[in-house]
Amino acid sequence: MHKKQIFHLILIKPTHYDDDGYPITWLRSHIPSNTLAALYGLGDDCRRREIFGPDVEIVVKPYDETNTRVRADRIAAAIRRQGGKALVCLVGVQTNQFPRAVDLGRQLIKLGLPVALGGFHAAGTLSMLPGVSPEIQEAMDMGISIFAGEAEEGRLEIVMRDAFNGTLKRLYRYTEDLPGLEGAPTPSLPAKALARNEGRKSSFDLGRGCPFQCSFCTIINVQGRKSRFRTADDLELIVRENHRQGIDSFFITDDNMARNKLWEQFFDRLIELKENEGIAVNLIIQVDTQCHRIPNFIHKARWAGVYRVFIGLENINPDNLLAAKKRQNKITEYRKMLQAWHESGASTWAGYIYGFPGDTRESVLRDIEIIKKELPLDILELFVLTPLPGSEDHQTLFKQGVWMDADLNKYDLHHRVVHHAKMSDKEFEQTYRDAWKAYYTPEHIETVARRHGAIPGRNPAEPAQFMTMFKIMFEAEGIHPLEGGILRLKYRRDRRYGMKTDPVGVFHYRLARESWWKLKIYARLAWQGWRIGQKVKHDPRRHEYTDLSLQPVIEEDLDKLALFAETAGGEAALSKKRGEDLMRAKVAARQNLQRLEAAE
Ligand code: B12
Ligand code: SF4
Known about the structure:
14% strand, binds iron/sulfur cluster, 21 helices, six-stranded parallel β-sheet, binds cobalamin, alpha/beta, 16 strands, Rossmann fold
């Protein structure tokens, strides 16, 4: 029988280096990469359509370096063994992953494999900066093909065809031409790859692009300000395909589900699948701070299966929000919005950006205390305000020639890469660490557990466990908790290009010492978190618990809250809100009068 030729499509989502230069890889990661899933879906579609004809079999293999050690030599050896042609794609490369991706590219090219690299760093830089930036030029000179833009509408196919014909271009630029998503091949990953994630979760996106203009954000300059969406049929297909593999838990990666104009159709379709066929899903979504004002949004989200929401709170100081052009965030709505989610039984996780020009050590630590006391929030994710290539902030600093750290590995929102206007570098970094510590105290973990314990049916041990995991990642692993996982893996030979490889004994001695030190922190904090959870769970009076953050929002009392009285611009925000409320009341009264007059 005629043997088919193989075309190997290798998809690698690179990780980035820790401060010692070792790739951050785990035995199990928390959430699968959506970019990897998106490209796997597109590659699989090319396989099904037999784009190289019936004599060529396309084999697609995904690697997520956050949960799998990537060995360039083994990949090359496997391809040699099976024969055929290949393309290695380094996918979804963010700025902080660019150095690692290039190091992998260097190894793969040396082994004779064609390599293409795409993702937010390439797309963001090429969209916002003049010409081609030096690190991208360097990668191209090394032989890596750079892809900037999105891969739908046949673009991955173009790159694959060029690789097949040995005519890969140095640069593929689609930044100005954003593809539609309706009916596009949907994100998916094989069950074997998903099994490397804790809890067998998968992820997908239902929309891309955002109409807002936050100056720190890269999304608008890469995915555009016009939103593009998948359809409810696409969603159903994704859910059914995954359900067949036993996967019913998903992270929908859209930056803001509440701004997706099809949100109701999506939720309705999921509710139908649940009620009519018993296909029930568990969902994590991202929303904005105004989502509770959309009639039925929270109710339907919960019914559809949403159990956790990521909220782009960003800051509680209106002056900071204004400086970042995040005008849509109204601190006057934060409490109502968080209460609405909390009462619905969902878990609330919010991002908080630190490092605005107006921030001081005192203001930041005070804000953390206000959040703890007045907002019913579970997880607070602190991020260092970072001029990410692709954002307006980065473009402005670049044009002004302001110093920005040249080490892209640090652009993980967990390191300082610029100087702050009011704090020294040392004070800035110390304040960041102290802000994390200030939120994740045992007392506050207990408070959050109690807030959940007061809701019938909620397990208070759950938030205590999550908060403890965040604390452990920060304190023991020294990384941002969003990059965390289960059991860190470290390999002597995988150290960052240009850093020395430690001799066998030295590396293992250091690893053993470090592991022992970490183990002690894990044990102490896990025990502490478990005890808090159990204490609240078994408290017979837990349903009676209440505190200021859970009290109904009474308009007249708003100015008593530190959220408005003590934050920069808080009072102005409150009086603006009252002005707007007054205007709305006046318009309503006028309309009412007109109606009455018309009736007479
Ligand atoms: C979901 C998400 C996460 C999830 C990731 C898990 C998951 N399920 O994917 C979580 C919450 C863990 C996360 C964490 C972080 N994230 Co994040 N995240 C996102 C988000 C919201 C969606 C990513 C996504 O799936 N996009 C859709 C995919 C399909 O688009 P894409 O990646 O661009 O890929 C397309 C094209 O680029 C192209 N393509 C990509 N690669 C290649 C390669 C080749 C060869 C080709 C041909 C094409 C191609 O094809 C794809 C399909 O069209 C984006 C914002 C956004 N809207 O994209 C931020 C974003 C990617 N994250 C960002 C950052 C900074 C981080 C963190 C460092 C922050 C932190 N400290 O938490 C960490 C890093 C963790 C890590 N190891 O990745 C930044 C990156 C900016 C930059 N220039 O670096 C973004 C853009 C948000 C922002 N702040 O501006 N993130
Ligand atoms: S930060 Fe969020 S709301 Fe702001 S522009 Fe980016 S995606 Fe839109």
